[in-house]
Amino acid sequence: MNLPERLYYPLDKAAKELGCDISDIIHYGANGFVKVCIKVYSSGKGFHSDNDDWSPNLLVNYDSINGIVSKEDVTYEEDEFGGRLVCYSQEFNFINSYLKLSGRVDFWLEDESLQVVDSSAVAYGVYGLVEVSERDLYVNEMNLINNESIMVSSFTLPCDATNNNINGYFRLPGDCIYNDELISKDDNALRENGIENSLSHESGVLVNINNLLITKDELDRLSGKLSDENIINTNPIDEDNPKSLAKKAEIIPALIRLLPDFKNADIDMMPVSKIKNVIESLAATNGVDLPDTHIQTWQKYLGRNRPRK
What count of other Cβ atoms lies within 10 Å of the Cβ of residue 259? Predict the structure, then answer.
């Protein structure tokens, strides 16, 4: 019988495929060599209503909003200091073969230019596989090996090397093509810098070895079936420690202040997106090849990265 490949595996089947035992997989997960998941299915109390159990921290693509929002699209609110906030919201669906995450991103915009200053994401529904945090696996490694249940509140979104061809439960009908550019996909460069799509659960989710899963992507990566460009490095050796990151957050703004275009600007108060746009414009004008860099990477190295819950 010609059966399709599994999209994800319980630990006993994954261990058989890898030629190890379940305790090895728990150990590898606890030390960053493999990502293990659980399956969830959670929605708000009504259609497109906020799901208060989940708080997303997502790689929002500001470029997909900047330049397309007009004055007719925005609303205005008063902030706590009596100033005017320019607000804009857009719903999204983040879908790959393992997960569907639906929700809304609320944007705060600069009044004149309508460029994004900041954003906050809200989840409507979380359906499918989410990756258990390495820290929770490490702290509770022996509990899991001894078949005890643990509570986990921190998760990341699973990578899908076939996200241009969604398979399984979340596949799209007919010739329908899914392409939502509002939320960026995780990739190697971002994850190596500790920047990735993540979720936190308000009260925690019960996890044990019987509901842990490994995706086909992870199994293929471990067995060498994925090509190098698709491999996500789950054990980066050069990730910034807090001291080096804090130092970069001092040095980089100081270097930016040396640029004539920022001579009289208050870098600390200027929106990160505006700093990014000015530097990209300067690079283009001077023929400098500036690498495409995600807004959250700019936030991180300017010391503006929002802490995770």
Answer: 12
Decide which of 21 and 222 is more confident. Answer: 21
DSSP-derived letter for residue 157 is: P
Write out the two tokens for 76: 């205005």
Q: For a pLDDT cut of 70, what percent of the chain falls above it?
A: 85
Q: Which amino acid is at 162?
A: T
Mean pLDDT of the residues in the chain: 83
The Cα 68–Cα 145 span in angstroms is: 52
Which residues have CB under 8 Å from 226's CB, separation 6+? 161, 217, 220
Comparing 135 with 304, which gets the higher pLDDT?
135
Max CA distance (Å), the chain: 71
The model's pLDDT over 55-87, given as tens digits with 9 standing for 90+, comes to: 999 999 888 888 788 888 999 887 777 777 899
Cα 173 to chain centroid distance, Å, stands at 26
Please give the helix or strand (H or E) that residue 154 lies within, else none: strand 150-156
Task: Give how far Cα 294 sits from Cα of 58, 60, 173, 281, Å.
Answer: 12, 9, 31, 16
Strands 99-109 and 8-10: unpaired
Q: Is the dihedral of CA 247, 248, 251, 254 positive or negative?
A: negative
Q: Scanning the structure block, which residue is given the tokens 């379940």?
A: 22
Does this model's pTM top 0.85? My answer is: no
- Residues with Cβ within 8 Å of residue 117, at least 6 apart in sequence: 108, 109, 110, 271, 272, 273
DSSP conformational letter for 294:
-
Region for residue 287 given its phi and psi (left: phi exceeds 0; alpha: psi -120 to 50; beta: otherwise):
left
Report CA torsion sign: 142, 152, 299, 101: positive
Q: Which residues contact 231 (CB under 8 A, 6 or more apart)?
A: 188, 221
**pLDDT tens, position by position, 173-188:** 655 555 578 898 877 6
Residue with tokens 């490694």: 141
C-alpha 66/C-alpha 211 separation (Å) is 41
